[in-house]
Amino acid sequence: MEQVEAKTLLASLGLMLVTLLWGLSFAVVKNSLDLVPPVYMMAFRFSIASLALLLVFPKKLSAITKETLKKGFVLGIFLALGYALQTIGVVYTSAGKNAFITTTYVIFVPFIYWFFTKHKPGFFSIIPAFVGLLGIALLSLQDDLSVNKGDILTLLCGISYAFHMVFIALFTKDDDPILLNLVQIFFVTVFSWLLAPFYDGAFPLLAIQAPATIWSMLFLGIFCTMLAFFLQTLCQKFVPPGTASLIMSLEAVFGVFFAWLILGEILSLRMAFGALLVFVAILLSQKKSLPKT
Predict the structure, then answer these.
(1) By C-alpha distance, which of 41, 34, 24, 72 is closest to 182?
(2) Is 90 exceeded by the pLDDT of residue 23?
(3) How far apart are the C-alpha atoms of 208 and 281, rounded to whole Å?
């Protein structure tokens, strides 16, 4: 029992590291968007991640089965949809609303997990999700609460991420997380390169020759994509989906922190209180959460 709890704690810390990397990626991406269009940036970072995974785990390729390809494809589709919808959605709405609506996955995950496993979430499993969502609202939302096309696209992004998290929890019960991650990253790479010319237009040849852009893409590809998704698929094996989704919502907290630290954006008292609520929600979820996967 103690060994299981230790694994869950370490896995939770691993997921927190993932959210820290993704939070940092917001500042890196924002500094690079003037040079590299968003979907091409997605294509570059996932291509680098795919190559890095192949270099680190070359012997794993021979272990990939048809079942792994099917499950990796499902993960890749939901992950790619989430990234694409979030990227396109932010064009039509504010960054704050985009971040907030994306994290509605903390509400969807318990119910999607219930649908697939018949494990009904208890009342005290839902409370942390709403507390976390309130925290993200204080952290992200400004005065504009109207609904537009970007908000709807971002909501679909949140639903897509919720399915991705649930399927990771289900698939890693019986499959190698490293193989699943390798396959899902590959499919996102393919999807990104297919979408980029239609959404972003011509290939940004001049942009990728700039040293700053190259370093940014390498950082995003290796640390924020390859390492982050490797840790996510590995750690979610030991953390209940509801708790995992709340921990993942820390991405918005770290995003605001690094935007303040690196980009000089404003960090208000209200935003700090919102971040505190997210941490409280995670602590509550450790007390009452969904059954362990």
Answers:
(1) 72
(2) no
(3) 41
Which of 88, 87, 82, 44 shows the shortest CA–CA distance to 216?
44
Q: Is residue 293 part of a domain?
A: no
Of 114, 59, 81, nearest to 187 by C-alpha is: 81
| Domains contained in the chain, number | 1
Containing 39, the helix (H) or strand (E) segment is helix 38-56
**What's 143's DSSP letter?**
S
- Please state the separation of Cα 83 from the chain's center in Å: 8
Buried b (16+ CB within 10 A) or exposed e, 210-240: eeebeebbebbbbbbbbbbbbbbbbbbbbbb
pTM of the model: 0.85
Assign residue 118 a region: left if phi > 0, alpha if psi is -120 to 50, beta otherwise? left
Q: For residue 292, tell me if it sits in a domain.
A: no
Give the pLDDT confidence of 100-120 residue by residue, as tens digits: 788 888 888 988 999 999 888
pLDDT (0 to 100) of residue 79: 96
Domain range holding 273? 2-287
Ramachandran quadrant class, 210 (left: phi over 0; alpha: psi -120 to 50; beta: rest)? beta
Residue 169 belongs to a domain:
yes
Check residue 264 and give left, alpha or beta (phi > 0: left; psi -120 to 50: alpha): left
> How far apart, in whole angstroms, are the C-alpha atoms of residue 110 and residue 166?
9
Q: How far apart are CA 71 and CA 91, in angstroms?
A: 31
Residue 45 lies in a domain: yes
